[in-house]
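Support request, please re-run this one:
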Amino acid sequence: MGPELVIAGWFASAAIGQLIGLAFSYIKEHPVWLRMKKELKKLHAALERIKAVVEKVEKLEIIDDCTPAEEAWLWQLKDAVDEANDVLDELEYYKLEEDVKSGAEKVRATASNYTKKFMRSAAFVFKHSMRLKKKLKRAVKNLVHVADSAGDFLKLHNPSNEHEKRQKQIITRRESGCLLNEEVFGREKEKEKIVGWLKKDGSGEHESGAKENVTVLPIVGMAGMGKTTLAQLVYGDDYVRGIFDQRMWVCVSNNFDVTVIMKKIIRAANITDRQAEELSTLQEILKEKLQCNKFLLVLDDVWNDGDRKKWEDLLAPFKNGKQGSKILLTTRLNSVAEIIGKVMEGTEKPMNLQGIEWSEYLSLFNKHVFDGVNAGDHEKLLLIGEQIAKKLGRSPLLAKIVGGMLNYNLSFEFWNEVLENSIFNSIQNEDFKPILRLSYIHLSPQLQCCFRYCSIFSQDYLFEKDELVRMWMAAGLIQQSDEDKKRRPEDIGGEYFDSLLRKSFFNWAMHWVGMTYYVIHDLLHEMVCSVSKNECLEVDYSKPKPRDIPTTLHHLSIMVDDPLVLRKVPQLKNLHTLVLRIYGNGHGWDDILNKVLKRFKNLRVLKLELSVTCKRGSLDAIGDLKHLRYLHLGNDISQLPKSMYKLFHLQTIIALHLNPSTKGISKVMRSLINLRHLILPLEVIHTIAEIGKLTSLQELDEFHGKHLSHSNTWRSENAPSLWK
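Re-run finished. Output below.
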């Protein structure tokens, strides 16, 4: 059996539609193309045929048992569409360049601009027309070539009548920003037991009988049973807040790096006046902070059950905590609880979490199934729903995920189809992936695409809604239909996120310094990584055996501690997102950074997180990224690249540590006429002259130290779109 390939969310037909409009505008408006008018008309007709082919392919959404030859053809199709899109985007770039040079600062680029007002400047025509004409011709030629070879593929995979019928049965409901209220079902007894344990203050009062100041309680249970949710319920309890001097929550996950975990704990403890890299120093910082405090530490999603020395190093600073201090941890493995017991004498008998009681479970399931509708109006579905719920092993995760899937297709036929699906048999073997994949498949193509994008971030990554939406926008994942053209893409992307949150593809994680963060359940993360592995990928080169990078990749996140390792990254002609995290010390980064950026000229999103200091010139290649929409310069990057003024497509700049003495900031900003989000230190904002001329600006935020302040927001009568 061949692999599965995801089609949903490619939006190739929309891109080709834009290309059709562009070709037509050239035929109609621009004299320089007259010698190619006949050929352009042929290409216009060919594009209509290609669009028809692509629309059929997109209806397939996911292709099972895809042969290597078929998969290669599909990627050729996507590459051809991306190439056409890049030509389209470059044409717009040069038009924006001419507008900036001519002082047309009120230009605002939207998707509809692609089919309007191109090449009005004679200088533009003569400077770029021949080269871009060749690129356009080659792009369309490649599309025609791929489309001509589509016949055999569509014979094998043409959408059947049954598929079309099922699509028509789906009851579509507009994605809403209304979120489910956070409510936990069926865990009151477990919560009371844990809170009772937390109340015990004197040594020797716990079940283990050990006379230790600090005691540990492991919560053990299979995936999807609600271990993290239960821990959150306890952690956020008002009474619990009041009995501890210090509360800390850290997600450990499967990368048990003691130094990294220790740094997370220090951040969670709000220790900001001391920093260190050495483990011994980190241990001393924590020991000093906690020895006079009664603390609660939650270690969530723990996997390490084989390296006792690492556990001893991690827990050493906590053994001298004030009497009554507690450590609560969640894990799937009893063996983790066993090794903790060997390291910490005050370790209690694990709480083994099982499925919740049936009545509570059915209430949880129905809450998600009938969210936003009256269950009484769907009496036929109630009985089927109960039968489906009985197949879910009383897993709270599956109640939310499957419930959300059913909620968006309230047809008897679809629910009955789900009920009779043999996929539920996998639960008996504690394998939830087939059911999670089924729920993923029934997301809209837009939501599938946005959720796949999240797989470039590591397991248990904390997502901030606005940041993610800005990245989705820049990567071209937010599609504005004709009826949505008057709406801001930020609002559409926000609805995408809220819908995924309501369907439990995201979960609330924490509030920190005025911000709300969300996380993807580790089972969902594993599932989406397997679905998107040829399109979106995270690679950690600090590990012994990093993943291979496929050349089809569009979105990539890299963690690296050696500059030479970056040479292993292959040429990725259609890479649109690069998140580069550089850790460790050393030299040689300045030269390699420019070389890396020069290899990926089609980037739309660039996020740099560096723990090394780089010279200003090391990032000059950023100015050649004509398609760039999102630029995040973090950590030790204190200077803007001199070439940034050429990024006419740029929508978002985040430079958290920019030096106020940097020269030329105002000049750079004046040319960024598509800028929508500007997040800089307060001292830098004050140095920017004529900021009101940035008429596309939607957000202007001050960055204070370690958090964003939204209380002081700049407004300008010359920037009417400024809203936040």
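Confidence is low (pLDDT under 50) at residues 1-8, 104-123, 160-181, 703-724. DSSP finds 25 helices and 19 strands in the chain.
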